[in-house]
Amino acid sequence: MTTFKDRLRDDLTAAIKARDELRSSTLRLTLSAIATEEVAGKSARQLSDDEVQKVIAREAKKRREAAEAFAEGGRTDQAERERAEGEVLAEYLPKQLSDEELSGIVAEAVKEAAAGGAEGPRAMGAVMKIVNPKVAGRAEGGRVAAEVKRLLAG
């Protein structure tokens, strides 16, 4: 069975052979971030596929934020490069939930929390505990929190 990390390495080799500079540099940086994560802490360890996916998601988020910052600073060429790197990383992440799907999951969680006695804005923590495992990796935390606040307020 090949691991997620092996797939990244194989794709890197293919990108180098195809002389795809964007893909190869993006995958190199991602594999470097994974290696850094593996040696962080008291002892080195092998990351699971889920942990590798979290590192990739974190790297993709960095690219989105950098693209926004470059765009605001008027450096459109660098912003485009960051967006393109983000698109390469998006291929390795699970499909993101649409706003409608996220809203449906959050609405169910709000009902579930209300049945448990948690209501109003103070129920945010209870609702987030229910929602987070259901959307793990498929929706950014800020998006989830905003939707929970919207439904609890309304």
Could you characterize what this model shows?
The protein is globular. It has 7 helices and no strands. With 154 residues, it is mainly alpha-helical. The chain has helices at residues 4-17, 21-39, 49-72, 76-90, 99-115, 124-135, 141-153. 20% of the residues are buried. The longest helix has 24 residues, at 49-72. The N and C termini lie far apart (48 Å).
Q: What attributes does this structure have?
A:
154 residues; globular; 7 helices; mainly alpha
Q: H/E series, N to C?
A: HHHHHHH
- Mean pLDDT, rounded to whole units? 85
In terms of per-residue confidence, which ranges show pLDDT below 50 for 5 or more consecutive residues?
none
Tertiary shape: globular
Rounded to the nearest angstrom, the distance between the terminal CA atoms is 48 Å
Q: Roughly how many Å is the radius of gyration?
A: 19 Å
Q: How many β strands by DSSP?
A: 0
* Portion in helices: over 70%
Strand content: under 5%
- The chain-level structural class is mainly alpha
